[in-house]
Design brief:
This protein is of the alpha/beta class. It is built from 9 helices and 12 strands. The protein has a single domain, classed as Rossmann fold. The chain has a 6-stranded parallel sheet, with helices on both faces. β1, α1 and β2 form a beta-alpha-beta unit. The longest helix has 21 residues. Bound molecules: NADP nicotinamide-adenine-dinucleotide phosphate (NAP).
Length: 285
């Protein structure tokens, strides 16, 4: 199986390379060689590699900055994805596209199903939804879309690494306890993607690690686990605060737990609890 990976420098892209199955021949094509801002560079990359599959792990991901850089966010998360989908259709290439819990407004009281109505409130979420819709319109049931949430990895910048840094520098921390979701180790997601590819799964699905947490719960766990394995010397007070006390340019979903049932049934994979995954990732640091 020949797979072209876009976005290999990102958290997920890096984990996909680490977990590469033996039967996959992987080509990576990265920024600036492939720039999602340039139609030509995308088509050159795809035409020169002739893959069976494209995994698109590239995206414009700075959620708050997207509120200012709207055009760029739409170019990368929507228009480039549309162009990749068209090239996939022309060349009979299957596509795996990664999307986000931010396509939902977060007003649910139970985990979001893949076919629940999206209603993003941030530029990032809106641009990612447009990308998903382009994939569905052009490739229909020939594409796999996986929505995930709260990704972190030992590679790249994320909440876990930011918290560890702040816990070493600050006397105390305020962390939001009103937003609920599921922390997800990109390593687990990458293994899941390879299994889905092997099974030739198509459609829109959800995947996160198991369990539910607030950012406050997540920060508390990072501190406890960090002390447990010697990454941190001492504990500092971590105080739960409301969203109003920590205003950000982009509005985030208050509740974005994703229902994974259909994905679990289709693949037979069992998710691992986020705290166990967090421990595994911290041991790598
Ligand atoms: N991070 C999260 O919490 C989260 C949550 C839910 C869903 N997701 C989705 O999961 C996927 C993977 O996320 P991630 O956290 O691994 O993202 P990431 O670490 O921010 O990596 C994004 C990748 O996109 C590439 N990229 C950015 N602009 C580009 C451009 N103009 N042309 C070509 N490549 C470009 C980056 O290249 P450079 O490194 O060279 O800039 C990088 O390789 C994305 O679709 C994201 O929307 C992420």
């Amino acid at each position: 199986m020949k797979v072209l990976l876009l976005g290999s420098n990102g958290q997920l892209g890096w984990e996909l390379q680490r977990t590469l199955p033996d039967n996959v021949t992987l080509t990576i094509c990265d920024y600036p060689k492939v720039d999602f801002g340039s139609t030509d560079s995308i088509s050159q990359c795809i035409n020169s590699t002739e893959p069976d599959y494209i995994i698109n792990a590239a995206a414009y991901t700075p959620v708050d900055k997207a509120e200012q850089e709207k055009e760029l966010a739409y170019r990368i998360n929507h228009l480039a994805v549309l162009e990749i989908s068209e090239l996939c259709k022309e060349n009979t290439i299957s596509m795996v596209h990664i999307s986000t819990d931010f396509v939902f407004n977060g007003q649910n009281f139970k985990p979001y199903q893949p076919d629940d109505t999206p209603d993003p409130e941030s530029v990032y979420g809106k641009s990612k939804l447009k990308g998903e819709q382009a994939v569905c319109k052009i490739l229909g049931d020939k594409a796999l879309i996986i929505r995930t949430a709260w990704l972190y990895s030992s590679h790249g910048n994320n909440f876990v690494k930011t918290m560890l840094k702040l816990m070493k520098e600050k006397p105390s921390l305020n962390v939001i306890d009103e937003q609920i979701g599921t922390p997800t180790w990109a390593n687990g997601l990458s293994k899941t993607i390879w299994i889905a590819l092997e099974k030739n799964l198509k459609g829109t699905f959800h995947w996160t690690d198991a369990g539910v947490a607030s950012w406050y719960d997540f920060a508390m766990a990072i501190q406890e686990e960090g002390i447990g394995i010697g990454l941190l010397d001492q504990s500092i007070p971590i105080l739960p605060v409301g969203t109003l006390q920590y205003p950000t340019p982009a509005k985030r979903p208050m509740y974005s737990v994703l229902d994974k049932t259909s994905f679990l049934q289709a693949t037979g994979i069992s998710p691992i609890h986020w705290r166990v995954q967090l421990r595994s990732m911290l041991k790598e640091l």
